[in-house]
Design a protein that fits this description.
AAA+_ATPase; 39% helix; binds adenosine-5'-triphosphate; alpha/beta; disordered N terminus; globular
Amino acid sequence: MTTSTTAKTMESTPVHEKKKMIETVNLTKSFGGHTAVSAVSLTIFEKELKSIIGPNGAGKTTFFNLLSGQMKPTSGEIFFQGKEIQHLPPHKRTKLGIGRSFQITNVFPTLTVLENVRLAVQAKYNIHYSMFRHFKHYKHLEEEAYESLEKVKLADKAGQLASNLAHGEKRKLEISILLALDTKLLLLDEPTAGMSIDEVPQIIEVIEEIRDQRDRTIILIEHKIDLVKHLSDSIAVLFHGKQLADGSPTEIMNNEQVQSAYLGGLYNDAED
Ligand SMILES: Nc1ncnc2c1ncn2[C@@H]1O[C@H](COP(=O)(O)OP(=O)(O)OP(=O)(O)O)[C@@H](O)[C@H]1O
């Protein structure tokens, strides 16, 4: 894990100088009588990495589903760069620049790693492939795809079939595809889940490098609290669907309400 002072730089930027990337206002999602997300009002600033933490069932994934458009809210609003988006379907939000890491459906197992990312680059430029055009017409797409693979440290696997990648490599490929699509807001849902111990530091390094470029905004759901502390500019805590706290990593770790209501449980989760 590399050390970086960039996160501290974001923390020290005065709030009035920060631009809002996405904001939720009283965002609520109920399933029958159960409210999974309850009047959550959160602001995520451009170029920051915000983590959403909370015990199992706290509403984190539902919150992501609302941001990405997989679910419609029961009430409340979502503003992306000032534009109201809660009524937009997922593909329109993708076009605006919101990308979610689990969109592994974009990965074609029988294509190579490079071909998968090249398709994302093509989609970004809206270019339809023609067998009769000279390959040089497409060379820049391939180069851009390769650069995107380099950013996630997967360039050495460019020629392999996507189906042959290890689990952690597939997660990196997903992130590479999001980067190739010029995603402004990356929604990373437990990127380390299911990874072997060897794979975790690699994905952390990738996320850290994307964060330190400071040209994207990242929202991260993650159970591993040490990782969250290390990576985040700010942390929001959900508890029974409600927003329990929102602040810097230090503020959250020192927040007595968070500690007593939740952190003990979280540490236990993390050790599972
Ligand atoms: N489609 C659904 N229908 C009914 N209830 C749902 C649905 N999706 C989520 N819930 C409920 O909403 C609550 C919040 O679930 P959610 O998956 O958002 O929590 P989470 O914080 O992501 O949990 P975990 O850390 O275990 O993934 C839970 O009680 C869950 O059972």
